[in-house]
Amino acid sequence: MIVKEMQGGLTVLGTPAILVLMHNLTQRQIEILRSIIEEYIETAEAVGSETIEKKHNLSASPATIRNEMTKLAEYGYIRKQHSSAGRLPTAQGLKFYVRELMKEKELSTVEEVALKEKVWDYRDKMQKFLKETTKSLAEKTNTLVQYSWHCFLPVRGVAIIMGLSS
After folding, report:
1. Residue ranges making up the domain that contains 33
2. The model's pTM
3. Residues 57 and 20 in one domain
4. Pair 71, 84 in one domain
5. pLDDT tens digit string along 97-140?
């Protein structure tokens, strides 16, 4: 089993440069996007340039951050609710964060066995299985995890969309 966890540095496909070229983002834009998403995860509120400048140790002024945020919005990674608001991550921004800025962490054998034991009895009962799996993910990652049940849709997996542990 694999659980995604925050990554300290940016290394995807071996070098940060590949990450930048793949998404046409500068290192500064990546750090601003990371800051917006992490702040949004923590507060569930729109994020402004001054908040990023004060809390995330970026070597850029609020004006520079706003200019970069405009570019990130043009690329579809963030959006504004209205003209005077901060920015919110879009689905594309969150997907980028999960796929590129988080790393996979192998569970220990003990952790894997414990999780499997928790859900084993529910393997034939899909709704109960998803509920128990979601509960186990939330406990393991110290995050809010949600699932929805649609009996007419095939289930392809359960994932944590976003989460930071304290």
Report:
1. 2-102
2. 0.56
3. yes
4. yes
5. 988 888 777 888 998 888 888 777 776 777 777 778 788 877 87
